[in-house]
Amino acid sequence: MKKALTLLLLAALAGAFAFNASAQDKVVRKIIETGQTDNRTMQHDDFLCNMIGGRLIGSAALTEAEAWVKEQFESWGLEVMVQEAGEIAVGFNRGPWSGRMLSEDGMVLHFGTPAYTAGTHGKQSGPVFLEPKTRRDFDRMKGVLKGAWVLLDAESNGMALDGSDKANEKRAETIARNEEIDRQNNEIRRWNFEHRDEPKEMAPYEAGTALFYKEMVEAGVAGFIRSAKVPLQVLYDRANCYDITMENLPRVCDILLDEAQFAVIKEKVQRKDIFQLEFDIRNHFYRGPVKYHNIIGILRGSKYPKEYVMAGGHLDAYDIGTGAVDDGNGTSVTMEAARLLCAAGAKPKRTILFCIWTGEEFGLLGSKFFVENKTVPLEKISNYFNRDGGPLCATGVSVPPAMYDDFVAVCKPLEDLNPAFPFTVEKRQGPPQPRPTRAGGSDHAYFAMNGVPTISFRENDPKGYNFDYREIWHTERDIYNKLIPEYMEHSAVVTAVALYGLANLDHLLSRDGLYKE
User: Fold this and answer.
1) Does residue 441 sit in helix, strand or coil?
2) Strand order in the sheet with 128-130
3) What domain range includes position 51?
4) What is the pLDDT of residues 352-399, one digit of tens each?
């Protein structure tokens, strides 16, 4: 009798397991079917970058995008956590901008201005001068600087000029040293005049960017112009944006100009040609504080609700472009993975978090806040998949040996998902790398620093579409037509299947050999 009961119990367990496996297979099939017939990844990205646009911290666009993502998650049946990650005292919205050279050989100017820098007062035109390098130069020209545009002898790195008190103190120190060098050079000039047969070499002046920045601002310059490589990389005022108030708004334009046009204008100035530049820059500020938030969709686990599998990308983006790739790509793929799972009726054992981070471009602010505030127990995170690169195709994954069998099982449905993009699981070779000690790169960083697995998919360009990430990274070319729809749509399906599979394991992924101890 006892043996018969045991056999019945085993049969029941086997039946339950078979039913559960069948249910899982049904969900996976539905994910794949919907992903192939009704994939909406590109609709998400289209709305983000073409309806909303560049989504900078402190902008109305980012606030609108947060509300939209929340609305989408809720419409699919997810719980939503809106997590305030910080605030900025003054908001910034970018309007249109234009410029031209006013001369017989005039041209339309190709330029950008870093966020949180000043605009013009309507169309503003004025003469152009080369920046003064010495006190003598500044004193000679200070009377003509009001309303003028000043060419700086410094190539742009995308960031705004640092006009902070600290930066101006350093400039003052350099000016003082150069005045001493100038005094010495005057003595050398006199020597050389009297000893022409044995001249001495003049001492070089110490270089600096906009050494007389403060003095030129006080003299009333209209703005500063630096040379910038194309495509233009245009970022923000990192040094001052958090210190701006409505009472101390920036007053002087900060222009990053196409290097070829900069060279033409500089040559005209050196020849003392008579011409002017005209700019119309509508950079708008509004009273804050403006808060920014992580938007996290939650698909609650049925058996292990306090264990987690996560995927994410960041919502904020520089506003010189529209943030279609960086990181509308990661946001849209994550959102579509969420939608596919909801549409398939997925009821995972573990909780799945779809993390749309804020403030990545300003220093991983959103993901850092999530980790440092222990939003969930870090030891209960099985894996976090981060997507923040090109609009490329997820074609595989490389994992430590201790995770290999689990990933092989989880990713089996992906092997034949698309013959054009075969999916492979590889076992990492060689010893594990040390756990990172400094943040960098993207939103996986603070998770990795705390020992959380951040296995991400191998992404490449199997069809050879010649995508170049450097072309769009923080540049004006980060726009919708740089996306690769078939890669992104495929990657959304891959992400959904992998998340669901990991969430249904009867254990968390092993961390053995993940990092060097």
Assistant:
1) coil
2) 111-112, 253-258, 223-228, 149-151, 128-130
3) 28-90+290-503
4) 999 999 999 999 999 999 999 999 999 999 999 999 999 999 999 999
